[in-house]
Amino acid sequence: MVQGHHGIGFATAKPAYGTYKSPYGPDYKIQPNIRGIGPGQALKIGITLGSFGVVGAIFALQFFAEVPKVRKDILQKFPVVGDYFVREIPPSDNPF
């Protein structure tokens, strides 16, 4: 037996016998989890992270909307609002 702190032994293996389950007790099942995070918590975390991602992407697009490459390659290709980002210089304002 492996000795732990203060001489208390570690549980190194499962016992060879099965545990008793009363036929009158509740019918329970162990919830699947990954490192203690179950499906409900994973859904909440996923929704939160997805929301932050969408807000971050919208912020980045609005922040870089005046960069010509972003405006031409990304923003002008949106179906409904793409025409709003078309910037044409009138011939009278062109110095060349």
From TrEMBL:
The keyword Protein biosynthesis does not apply. It holds the Pfam family QCR10. Signal peptide: none annotated. The chain crosses the membrane at residues 45-65. It comes from the Eukaryota. One of its GO terms (cellular component) is mitochondrion. One of its GO terms (biological process) is mitochondrial electron transport, ubiquinol to cytochrome c. The keyword Transmembrane applies. Keywords: Membrane, Transmembrane, Transmembrane helix. PANTHER family: CYTOCHROME B-C1 COMPLEX SUBUNIT 10, CYTOCHROME B-C1 COMPLEX SUBUNIT 10, MITOCHONDRIAL. This is Cytochrome b-c1 complex subunit 10.
